[in-house]
Fold:
Amino acid sequence: MDETEDFRSARDSLGHGTHTASTAAGSMVDGASLFGMADGVALGMSSTAWIAAYKICYARGCANSDILAAIDQTVADGVDVLSLSVGGSSKPYYTDVLAIASLGAVQNGTGFCRCLCWKFGPF
Structure:
């Protein structure tokens, strides 16, 4: 880990985790707009939700071991909803680390898992 690029804590150095957390549980903001257009109210899906954030990616990428450790920790911490915004190329479920770990989380008490994959290139 390069500490000039990353933090050892769950602190978000690139903004992606902060963005996804505010989408899930952001408080109401009056007068929100996009560059002065579409003036209105911004609100996360559940403004009373509690967020548990686990760092799984660093500037040099996302290691499967970090992803699996974080998913295991969510189960240990009693997290109700697991939302991951990581991924890669498509592969069969039986070889997909995210799919297998998410299934394990649901089997061990997590009520719901949602995995969003990043898209690479035009499809």
